[in-house]
Design goal:
Layout: E1 4-9, H1 14-17, H2 25-32, E2 34-40, H3 47-56, H4 60-63, H5 94-100, E3 105-108, E4 121-123, H6 134-141, H7 144-154, H8 165-181, E5 185-190, H9 192-200, H10 205-227, E6 235-239, E7 245-246, E8 249-252, H11 253-259, E9 266-270, E10 274-279, H12 295-301, E11 303-307, H13 309-314, E12 323-327, E13 331-334, E14 345-346, E15 357-363, E16 376-377, H14 378-389
Parallel strand pairs: 1-5, 1-6, 2-16, 3-4, 3-5, 8-13
Antiparallel strand pairs: 2-15, 6-15, 7-14, 9-10, 10-12, 11-12
Bound molecules: zinc ion.
Length: 407
């Protein structure tokens, strides 16, 4: 098995690849490695479902993870649970395949991977709900001894779960784990850029600074690989999940459904720049449920188009929504009665936007220098990672493209 370090640069997308510092590490990765900058993401473009697709090679209709959170109508945002645990995924992941092949994995802030028995070193991606203690929750969802050992070394780098400290911490812990334990597979999720874009805007100076910080983190991680005996031949793979678009207007869909007397028949879950509609308590089955939202309502709701159930099936979406809606440009959907989002940019949209196009870049010995692969699907990422490691993901729907990246 060939060792591999997978780094997810959350919210990095195609446009960013044309604006990189030419002297930075990512530029070097693209110049001396092989890459695709048009990896088409899934519907909806949300972090948790995409990261699940990356390590399974399956779309949400098979993984069962089609949102960050299970549907929790009426529950305030800070009390909603997320899909934190491995048990939510219905298909095998790369972590299990590595273990079956006798390898050991490290997972740092990788979504939907808490309490995964196949992961040897887990710093869990989980966050406290209102009234919960962060430290206790992190310890319960990951490997306590491992977390405490990294915490002793790098705890001073972070202030709670705020960025950029959290990503500095995560990258330092990953490099340290590489140097001390030499994992066969390390998966690291860096949220810094996503946070910067949400808070300051898609192309804000703060977002550009976050990209430069990720660049330095990648370089330090690569150095850890090269300086660690037994890790020199490991591949470094950088991936991303979605871009973002700026927000002009927030539309509270729950309130509008209520104002039009539709809240008994329909329940809505916002994905940000799209939304899924589910049967409410008073719903009775009908042939075209999307007709419950007549086109006259779309403008008030900030909807640019609807996806019928049949179209959701063609997009390999999860099976439970009746239909979905895409937000008009600059519109973000809210579904909670008591909170409006206060963000400058976000994601969660459907196909066809530039911000759907993501990065898959491979760097290391035996990689085709400067090869650009024109297009990939997000479901190809899992089997391709497996292929690069000399493994297989037999349940994947995507294609192993590893041969296109290697000499
Ligand atoms: Zn994300």
């Amino acid at each position: 098995m060939r060792k591999l370090l997978l780094v997810s640069l959350d919210a990095f997308f195609v446009r960013d690849t044309y604006a990189l510092d030419p002297d930075g590490f990512l530029s070097r990765m693209l110049r001396e490695g092989a890459f695709c900058r048009r990896v088409e993401t899934i519907f909806p473009a949300l972090t948790y479902p995409i990261h699940v697709t990356m390590v399974t090679g399956c779309d949400p209709h098979r993984t069962g993870v089609g949102q960050n959170q299970p549907l929790q109508p009426g529950v305030p945002g800070d009390l909603r649970v997320w899909y934190w645990e491995r048990k939510h995924i219905r298909v095998p992941t790369l972590f299990e395949k590595v273990k079956e092949a006798g390898g050991r994995s490290c997972s740092i802030l990788w979504p939907v991977n808490c309490r995964n028995a196949s992961v040897r070193w887990c710093f869990p991606e989980v966050h406290p709900l209102r009234g919960e203690n962060t430290v206790l929750k992190v310890l319960r969802y990951g490997n306590p001894l491992y977390i405490l050992s990294e915490e002793r070394k790098f705890g001073s780098l972070r202030q709670g779960i705020r960025e950029p400290g959290l990503s500095d911490y995560a990258a330092a812990a990953a490099a340290d784990t590489i140097r001390h334990h030499k994992p066969d597979f390390t998966a690291l999720h860096l949220i810094d850029l996503d946070e910067a874009r949400h808070h300051h805007g898609t192309f804000s100076p703060e977002a550009a600074e976050a990209i430069r910080r990720n660049d330095r983190r990648l370089e330090a991680l690569f150095r850890a690989l090269r300086e660690t005996p037994g890790m020199e031949d490991a591949l470094l793979v950088a991936v991303s999940d979605h871009g973002q678009e700026d927000i002009r207007e927030t539309v509270n869909l729950t309130r509008i459904l209520r104002e039009h007397g539709l809240d008994r028949v329909l329940t809505v879950q916002s994905n940000g720049m799209s939304a899924c509609f589910f049967p409410g308590e008073g719903y009775s089955p009908r042939p075209d449920p999307e007709k419950l939202l007549p086109e006259a309502l779309w403008k008030e709701m900030g909807i640019s188009r609807l996806y019928t159930r049949q179209e959701l099936d063609q997009m390999h979406a999860v099976s439970d929504p009746l239909f979905a809606a895409e937000a008009a440009e600059g519109v973000v959907f809210s579904d909670a009665l008591d909170e409006e989002k206060r963000e400058k940019a976000t994601h969660g949209f459907g196909p066809g936007r530039e911000a759907d196009l993501c990065l898959f870049a491979v760097y290391g010995r035996g990689v085709k220098a400067g090869a650009e692969i024109p297009s990939m699907a997000m479901r190809d990422v899992g089997p391709t990672l497996a292929g690069l490691m000399g493994l297989r993901l037999p349940d994947a729907e995507g294609t192993d493209r590893s041969a296109e990246f290697l000499v």
